[in-house]
Amino acid sequence: MPVDHTISVVTNGVRALEALADPTRRAIFEALPQAPRAVGDLAAAVGVSSSAVSQHLRVLRAARLVMMRPDGNRRLYFLDPRGLGDARDYLEQFWPSALAAYAAALESAEGAG
Known about the structure:
The protein is α+β, with helices and mostly antiparallel strands. The protein contains six helices and three strands; from the N terminus they run H-H-E-H-H-E-E-H-H. It has a three-stranded antiparallel β-sheet with strand order 1-3-2. The chain starts with a helix and ends with a helix.
């Protein structure tokens, strides 16, 4: 049976948004665009323990928002564009109706004024 790509994108997009709903995970995510970082660096930047950062990174990895690569005895984390694409694709499905509602509101405001 073929896999419906739309369902996969919606599921992954929702998973990415749910992962970023947590303020600590969002702070970790926002600390990564400049360069790959180790857990200790992220812990210092975000102000939580390395153990907490590791737990949040597991969630971010499951949501395909972060990837890891070994670097000697450290693991470096960096952004994964797949999760961002999934979140964007999920949100874009609502764009046409949002634009239509905005246009209707403008027309209504112009008619009242």
